[in-house]
Amino acid sequence: MILRILGEGQFEVADHTVEVLSGLDNELQAAVEAGDDATFHRALSDLLALVRETGTRLPDDHLGPSELVLPAADSTLEEVRALLSDEGLIPG
Questions:
Q1: pTM greater than the 0.85 cutoff
Q2: In this structure, what are the phi and psi dihedrals at residue 71, rounded to the nearest 5 degrees?
Q3: What HEC string does 21-59 produce?
Q4: In angstroms, rounded to a whole number, what is the distance separating the alpha carbons of residues 63 and 80?
Q5: Residue-wise pLDDT tens for the chain (92 aa)?
Q6: Does residue 7 come out as left (phi exceeding 0), alpha (psi in the -120 to 50 range) or beta?
Q7: Tell me, what's the pLDDT at 87?
Q8: What gap in Å lies between CA 48 and CA 36, rounded to an integer?
Q9: How far apart are CA 56 and CA 82, in angstroms?
Q10: Can you tell me the distance from the alpha carbon of 44 to that of 80, in angstroms, rounded to the nearest whole number?
Q11: Which terminus, N or C, of the chain has the lesser number of Cβ atoms within 10 Å?
């Protein structure tokens, strides 16, 4: 699966990583719904770190579509709230 981190680029991640990301996404969504800024920042940081650590960064000139778009590391709780669907950032 190809994911885009806004402001950073695209990463290809394995399906089993997406399952782990889904769990972190649930934490992130709960923090956003509760307005818990500290937990939100930790969950977002953990989510993006996992993509960076386990994913393969695609070249900047790669023109393929991203299946999911993740917020930038410096996104605010309110910015992420606007991106969330009922299923969070990562449907599943």
A1: yes
A2: -70, 160
A3: HHHHHHHHHHHHHHCCHHHHHHHHHHHHHHHHHHCEECC
A4: 25
A5: 999 999 999 999 998 888 888 888 889 999 999 999 999 999 999 999 999 999 999 998 888 888 888 999 999 999 888 877 666 677 65
A6: left
A7: 62
A8: 18
A9: 27
A10: 9
A11: C
Token output for 32: 């956003």
Residue 90: the pLDDT is 72
User: 4: which 2 tokens?
Assistant: 């885009």
Length of the chain (residues): 92
Contact 47, 70 (CB under 8 A): yes
> Per the structure block, which two tokens stand in for 68?
């999911």
- Tell me the C-alpha distance between 64 and 50, whole Å: 21
Residue listed under structure tokens 């709230």 = 81
CA distances from 83 to 14, 43, 68 (A): 23, 15, 11
